[in-house]
Amino acid sequence: MDQSKWMQLLEAQADQIIERVDFRKVPFLIGIDGRCASGKTTISAVLARRTGWPVVHLDDFFLRPEQRTPERYAEPGGNVDRERLLEEVILPLEQHKPVSYQKFDCSAMKLGETLTIPNAKVIVLEGSYALHPALRDHYQRRVFLDVEAQDQLNRIEARSGAEKRKVFEERWIPLEEQYFSFYDVSSCADLRINTSMPE
């Protein structure tokens, strides 16, 4: 993958998101969901760099060990702590209250560093499961990023190695696909973007 061309593509796609912001609605929450390796974190970083909008990563809301029950994992999209995201981030934002939360530390398997969201008119929430039905109605703009299957696997291997690619193929991608299918996630998006490079 030509990294510079891909970044040019994401810059253009970021323009589409920026153009759809209505600054009369404050706070304006943007939810960005999509397939792993589709560029959710990267395009959110582009938005933050260009606009100063704060970004909340759903990776900071992985389930704590005591929440990782078979029943929870059986739920489509159940492997993110959406309840804590709502309670600590989304609802306080809607009530114009200060927001701080602890990010989940994967290495220690517990809550760690406390992060604070600065006062802003627009906030981006990005990550897999961001458009779960329990969350999606809280956003003023919903974005879904897609990627072709082979591009997805190539990107995962390029960033994480062949061993991690296998883990994604066998575990995380099937969980995501179950969630996308069960809730027909892409159809709820206001903006759907395919981040695979054109031939």
Unreliably modeled segments: none
Strand content: 15-25%
Mean pLDDT over the residues: 93
Radius of gyration: 16 Å
Query: Major beta sheet, specifics?
Result: 5 strands, parallel
User: Which architecture would the CATH scheme give at its second level?
Assistant: 3-Layer(aba) Sandwich
Summarize the structure.
By secondary structure, the protein is of the alpha/beta class.
Q: Would you write up a description of this structure?
A:
The chain starts with a helix and ends in a 5-residue tail after the last strand. It has one domain: 3-Layer(aba) Sandwich (Rossmann fold). By secondary structure, the protein is an alpha/beta fold. It is 43% helix and 20% strand. The model has no long low-confidence stretch (mean pLDDT 93). α1 (3-19) packs across α2 (40-51) and α6 (149-160) crosses α7. A hairpin with a 4-residue loop joins β3 (99-105) and β4. A five-stranded parallel beta sheet has the order 2-5-1-6-7, with helices on one face. A two-stranded antiparallel sheet has the order 3-4.
